[in-house]
Fold these 3 entries.
Entry 1:
Amino acid sequence: MSVKISAGFDSGNIIIESANDPSDIRLAIRNDSDSHFFQWFHFRATGAKETLCTFRITNAAKAAFPNAWEGYRVAASYDRESWFRVDATRYENGHLIWDHAPEQDSIYYAYFAPYSMERHADLISDCLQYDGVSLDVLGTSIDGQDIDCLGVGEGEKTIWVIARQHPGESMAEWWMEGFLARLLDEDDEVAIQLRKDATFRVVPNMNPDGSRRGNLRTNAVGSNLNREWGVATPETCPEVLCTIAAMDADRPVLCLDVHGDEALPYNFIAGAEGIPGYTQKQADNLEGFLTAYKKASPDFQTKHGYSKSAAGKANLTMCTNYTAHRYDCLAMTLEMPFKDNADAPDAVEGWSPDRSAELGGAVLDAIADVLEQL
């Protein structure tokens, strides 16, 4: 018996080494486009119903973040809507391995629940059914896909929220679904007031090419968008270049860049403390936001996160540092886990699309709490 493995679809990524023996299915992850990065995988397995299979990713040790495999569980789905975690996942001798007996003839496995470009198109269309929502196409990607930017609200203060600079961090666009659903809620008092007091510029997917191609971190020509701020060219990174042009025309008082972290099992914020000229006002605004977000969501915390850059030593080619420095605004990177929230683990789903969306909705309370002082 042989199991058929395929990845010829939106965000698919896998290389088949051997699938003749269900007890030893050997696979590898394809590199990002023109890049050494890889870690995202997404594939379909058929012909294995009620057969105990052992899947083995043989190049896991060479992935971008090999230490992140420890404690990780593969995501799986039969209907591409509900995703669960495979408990029998382990990292041994440089291989990511999981044992599973599919209950149906077709099953999908992925690094995290995927967010397809078709779903992105639906998200944009759904949002535009609400009064007062506009769409600007900031530019086009190297593959010719639109960089969609939704406009919401009528206030003088502009808030930019962007996601999926790193396309494999699909939890970021699930977060966007929850954020936009609440922002557009016609009965939510916080959202109603925010739409009066601020104008939101929302880019749900900064890297559509990498998303469709099944990349972890890069666009179609191997550029890591979150190392291109201030240095992007039309040839290497039009996605960032057109976003900066739009920000220059509509300067942010707050910029939130939404990501996922492979290793840390927590939700946390990274600020711009290391930029040259970091002000006390920026520090106070950050502290106020963190306090409010922690109050708004039980899934958000401030104990665990990244080390702060030394004063004046921040990497200004990263969005948060670049925007904080260029626009003198409150700029932050939100990170969510690929694994689970260790403070409140979910045995079935781990960190999930639904919890990402809930965290996205909760951010409105944090923004409302600090908006007046921005």
Entry 2:
Amino acid sequence: MLPPELPPLPALTRAEGEFVDSYLRVVDLVGRINPSRAEDTYGALRAAQALVTGAAELRDALTLMHARGERELHTATLDRTLRVLDGERRAGRVTMPPGPGT
């Protein structure tokens, strides 16, 4: 049985696509560093080291958008894109897990 087909991604500029991809990479890395969820120091250390590169890629994507005259973030489109790419679950790893008895 095949998994359900994901909805199509909204149309994005190349820079918007790089922005979303870079943002999600950073979110994934911060989730791996999160002290309430990290499993070992080495994995958290590796994620922290990679975060420098991820932040630079995110900066570069936003710089490119700005240089091309893309002054506004189209939040509704970017929100749909993040949801298709499982952004809610991925961003959830950045927050604290539910406490005992919650």
Entry 3:
Amino acid sequence: MAARGGRLRRSDRLRSSKDFQRVRRDGVRRSSRHFVMLVAPAGALAPAGTPRLGVTVSRKVGNAVTRNRVKRGIREWFRSRSSALEGDVVVIARRGAGQLTSDEARRELSGLAR
């Protein structure tokens, strides 16, 4: 279960490059105009039944303030949906994601998670 409020717990995040590569290699890819979502079965070291999140937001999305706002929105969406998600999830923000409102981003991410 993801932490309430503030930061995601360490166990709720994908942190290593190997985890990101595994999700990219083994995951199912879903994309929309502003996001790409990769979903893969949980890694061997992941706690059973606990979804983990990895976020990638490049400089193409905007300046540091914009990128951080996008990442916070993705993490908030993950916290609200983590009970319905399984495995490891990587969300990649595309150009233009920084111009979305939080509701638009949430709707787009929820559409990808189905």
